[in-house]
Amino acid sequence: MTNETATPSSAPATPEAQSFPHGLGMSLPSEEAHAKAEGTFPYAADLWAEGLLWASILRSPHAHARVVSIDTSHAREMPGVLAVVTHEDVPGGPLSGHRASDRPMFASEVVRHHGEALAAVAADHPDTARMAAAAIVVEYEVLDPVTDPEQSFGAEPLHPDGNLIRHIPLQHGDAEATGEVIVEGLYRIGRQDPAPIGAEAGLAVPRPDGGVELYIASTDPHGDRDLAAARYGLERERVKVVVTGVPGATADREDPSFHLPLGLLALHTGCPVKLAASREESFLGHPHRHPTLLRYRHHADAEGRLVKVEAQILLDAGAYADTSSDALAAAVSFACGPYVVPHASIEGWAVRTNNPPSGHVRGEGALQVCAAYEAQMDKLAKKLGVDPAELRLRNVLATGDILPTGQTVTCPAPVAELLSSVRDFPLPPLPKDTPEGDWLLPGGPEGVGEPAAVRRGVGYGIGMVHMLGAEGTDEVSTATVKVQGGVATVICAAVETGQGFATLARQIVQETLGIEEVHVAPVDTDQPPAGPGCRGRNTWVSGGAVERAAKMVRTQLLQPLAHKFGMSTELLQIADGKITSYDGVLSTTVEEAMDGKELWATAQCRPHPTEPLDATGQGDAFVGMAFCAIRAVVDVDVELGSVRVVELAVAQDVGRILNPAQLAARIEAGVTQGVGAALTENLRTPKGIVRRPDLTGYALPTSLDAPDIHIVNLVEERDVVAPFGAKSASAAPVVASPAAVASAVRAATGRPVNRLPIRPQAAVAEPTG
């Protein structure tokens, strides 16, 4: 895997250009990098406590069933079992959920999806806990599951709140407008699992005050604390969440079905209780990407300029609402893509089914519609006989244009530049007809068919995502910066999930205060809240809070010197650990200026407010947006239907490069996750039953599947309303890469490719003659 990135003009080309790599714009390595590489980093699965018990959760084998009875007597009588809990033992009420309180900790009267929890056991050995859970006798009345979201509209209610979670009928411009050229399509997007590196694990420890401490890989510790306290019937002050090492995070770390039973068992036994989920439990328990059905009709004039987009979008939320309302808002709002569309009629629904729950996965809502609207652009280009890249350039969005929601794009939107960059990047060479060259063909040297059957295709995908929460979400974070003895400490409850916040926080303080040694304190709920670690929040909101706190400390540090020399603090600068004045009269070190004092400050960052979409889908719902353009080059064996992604050229607007190496890693990771969604990742659930919930049955892309990734252009046009001007980095390439791969397969085969992941039969070329 390769990348080519632009080095910011304000930073040295390499870290060796100065005494130590620090400050914004440098590739400062993570403090945890060595421990993670050596396998010594403490993840939740590594935790231990004196008197430890082990937990196991009983999960439903059915997608839909009425619970007639639950008999726990056999499990309770087993030697080594200290507690068995069911819905009857939940003091705070039956419902829980981060964004929608519709999900029970344990199923009581009805099971709504395969793998739903019914009971939990605590025992003195993990094998005993598993056997005890298996000994619980549940009598079911199996019901017919509703697994087709289209059937959900007319089905009996699956939940007291009904089957419809949200409906958005967006109307923009003239509903009667038409174009000279019309193309239509029906598209299906599969169920992608977040597939975390490490499965869910955690430790619950009872407190002397009757509360509990949860040591879990949480991405929103205060949200998890509040949720747990409500379910346990406790005051928030008696529940503490301590964030352990998070081995990557998305929907799997935001689901309460693992840690809520854990804390309940600790409260019942008075002992520490640990849970380490198996890979199968991980697949069954956490949410996945929303499977989506999309119907599109694009209208354009004879020159290929878009006139109107009509779309129907149906999201399968699974059994519970979770974040489906948010995902639908993103899908409907970005249904036309980063293109100027004068008229739009978009209708979206999110419905309950008896499929596994869907939730937050990078680019939720935006990925699904991107695959569809880019397929439509390919169809339109083919019908008009226009180059696909040229057609897109005729329609791309720019700053000042208006979205179908009526919101004006005020942030930088260099979409034309991004697309031109990837279009003009040199194409990779064609494979050579040699034994070594066989590796370049789909299937490798043992699996490839005839080289003559391999065709190369080039395709494009342009994705857009929103940053931060939307539709009136109050985004706020608090941070404290302390300095003493030449060492700075950052206290902020923003969780390091792999996106690099801890490293960024160090760089911010180094840049602002000129102090080399900066540490980020471990996260727990004794600190002020910072919100969930998703959608670029950590860089924007928490990074902004750290910057403000550091600047306040900087003022405290410089004010005595400025007063002494009769000048303002603005005339003093800090660089490389030294404080100097504009005229050179003052020159001292930060350590000398500190003079043994302790300085500290606490600050908040709160972006400008947004508003909910109204009854016609109109409103300023988003704080900011990020864009990414990708050109995919694929080789397809048109007889076997096998696909190899040869290369992906990526251009992205990043606002400002804060850490070049970290940014490149985030983009490459996002692109690769998108390749998985395009070609292999699909959690199959026939009749609502998760089929082969393991990493053999669920095909993740490996290092052999990862293509060459060339980051050809990072546009640094700063977003003036964002701290540092930086934008979210990882979600936009996840959104764009599946669309680009599908577009390239479409170009190679001539097939419509209307389903993700791409099935082999969809990549077999149409017969000719």
Tell me about this structure.
Residues 1-17 have a biased composition (Low complexity). Pfam families: Ald_Xan_dh_C, MoCoBD_1, MoCoBD_2. This is Molybdopterin-dependent oxidoreductase. Residues 1-33 are annotated as: Disordered. Residues 38-144 form the Aldehyde oxidase/xanthine dehydrogenase a/b hammerhead domain. The protein has 769 residues and is an alpha+beta fold. Helix content is 25%, strand content 26%. It is built from 17 helices and 29 strands. The protein has a 7-stranded mixed sheet with strand order 3-7-1-14-11-12-13. Strands 9-17-16-15-10-29 form a 6-stranded mixed sheet. Strands 18-26-27-28 form a 4-stranded mixed sheet, sandwiched between helices. Helix 16 (660-679) packs across helix 17 (731-749). The longest helix has 29 residues, at 537-565. The chain is globular. The chain starts with 32 loop residues before the first helix and ends in a 13-residue tail after the last strand.
